[in-house]
User: Fold these one by one.
Assistant:
Number 1:
Amino acid sequence: MPNYTKIKETDKAYMAGIMDGEGTFNAHTVNGGKQWCIQVHVTSVDMVLLEHCKALYGGSTGRARRPGTNLGNLPIFRWDLCGEAAGKLALDVLPYLKIKHKQAEALVESRNTITLNGKRTDPIDMRLRDFCARVIRQNNQRMLQHA
């Protein structure tokens, strides 16, 4: 488990650049809508970059499910971060983000409604989470339309 108190401001700013360029913020339900899940993903052809992300915040690294088709068919790798750690990352990078600020802001807002087990209980929290998930999806879609 990473020691979050030792993450430097320069590392947070660097991670914001990675998230703006290669990252994705995500929030959705799992287990038939019974639990709320927040996630962060970064994809890259550079596993060293992803291992650096993992060293700072934890999570897991591996090959992306889709085979790489860029840069001469190099493999594409992925770093995944879920739950509280994803919320911590979003909170850390929020002041430095330029492009994906709205997605991170919505993820942080939804994070504030999560109980320890992630269960959806309070109807107000459920509506807020659903709204935050829509904001994230809409902004992620906007990013894809401009690609």
Note: Residues 4-145 form a domain with the Endonuclease I-creI fold (CATH 3.10.28.10).
Number 2:
Amino acid sequence: MWNRSCEFLVHAASITVTNTNDNAPGSLRQALTIANDGDTIKFEVTDTITLTSGGLPINKNITISGPGRDQLSIDGNQAIIVFGVFPGRAPTMSGLTVGLCNYGVAAVSSCVLTGNLLGLYSYEGETIVRNCVVSGNSAPSAGGIDNGGDAELSNTILNAGASGENIFNNGGTVTSHTYNISSDNSGGVLTGPGDQINTDPLLGPLQDNGGPTLTHLPGRVGMLRRRRVGATMRRPNTR
């Protein structure tokens, strides 16, 4: 039987985004268009990519490796969807500030989901969120995460925007793999060891803090060093 993973290895390539244009040679949109299953998209740019022709569809099993969530932002420009994952697709993404609409199986790590109508919308999809910040998203409800599929969270900060709760579990399943902080009660789903609900993470506003893209400056809680010792979380000694 043909091993599909071997097919990925044979055809896997690295595609580099070289500019912040919405749609042109070297742009992220072009990289997503020409990528094949198993490819990795990397970046030689920082700052902000502002979308002017709609959201970015992801219809392949690819890896999107950003330079750092404080280095590159994908601005949807009031689009409802920034990244849109097609059903049956399994991308991984890291090191970006972005928004995600997931109908597939997506893994998101070391990202900021902010400044959108929804940070994460998952409809019958499977989403793994690790070491992320979900903040500053505003919708009538579920501004942070609107989950109708299976979502797994770990080491993630959730800070409600001007409207909407952090997690609206719309008939799906949310599993906590520990050490999440939520500014509200998280819909009652964050019950893992080390989880903290109704806790202000003291994130600063989304603003220019001296880097190439807008960021949330973390406060004392957001800067906790989380050390797993049994089921407890120690705070660093500040004295």
Note: DSSP finds two helices and 25 strands in the chain.
Number 3:
Amino acid sequence: MMLRHIYSALFISVIALILLPAHAATIVDIDINNKGQRYNMVAQMQIDARADIVLKLMKDYSRLTNINPYLLESRILSKSGEETRVSMITKTCFMLICYKMKHVQDFVQIDNDTIQSQFITEYSDFKHGWTRWKASSNSDNGMPVTLLTIEVEVEPDFFIMPVIGPRILKDKLIEVTEVTVKNLEAKAQLIEKQAGE
């Protein structure tokens, strides 16, 4: 029974880590729901940087560890046409016990501002999963900003506590998303600054 609780906490951390990933990054909205063991999440964030740079950073699959500190590995396995297969290992800790989980995803840019991925379940710790990242150009007081929308649907390969799982998941997701988005914004702003020099 204790092992099930540990796996539940582990999953809650990992869902947050799947996302792709400075001072003004703002979480606009996060909505999480579940049907049985399948979890859906939609998050919107405003990033004070140009959308083309944000998208470029998100597509740098072998360097995703630079924006998501919870990723231990992000390694390109293969490329076929527009599709890139990426192996990722996340590390999450619960009550001083840390775990590593693997997820392999096929990424493809489906239009000018959107990247989508499909989990390869036979190589992942999930029965089902996909993500979609959309980096839309916007402006705030005349300055370019990005509205980043992330959608995730996953089904873990282990038990999640039905009563408190979604609440813990949301809290962990907010924590990890804030760190990742701030890192993404800081790197995008650095690129903008270097380009302007």
Note: The chain has one domain: 2-196.
Number 4:
Amino acid sequence: MAKGIFSGLAGRVSALQTRALAALTVAALTGLSGEAAAQSSAGGIANTVSNSLTGMGNLLLGGAFLGGVALCGAGLLKVKEVSDSDGRDSYGPAIWRLGVGGGLVALPALSGAMSGTLFGGSTPTPAIQSGVGWRVN
């Protein structure tokens, strides 16, 4: 029998955790629907939902940054652990942690540059005239 990625997850999540996540989801959706119901037009509802999702995106990007910092720290600790061992361990897991951590740390900056490029916002560009620093167009 083939096992999926999430096959072992169902046994690890307790009933209390499931109920807590369900209550949190209902509370978030209830708050969103209350704000949306106060609007008088479809455009107002769309703006409310868009603003809520923008905040969620910023939260996810902040979490990615903090997770990246934690993975970089774990990678550095793993490098030290491997270097202190007698050559029994490999550097592979440490390098993977550092690479993924660096990618997660760079994700907010990459997201800002991509959104500015795709949607025409103001993105930081190198200030070539002064030679130092950044300026916003």
Note: The chain has a mean pLDDT of 74.
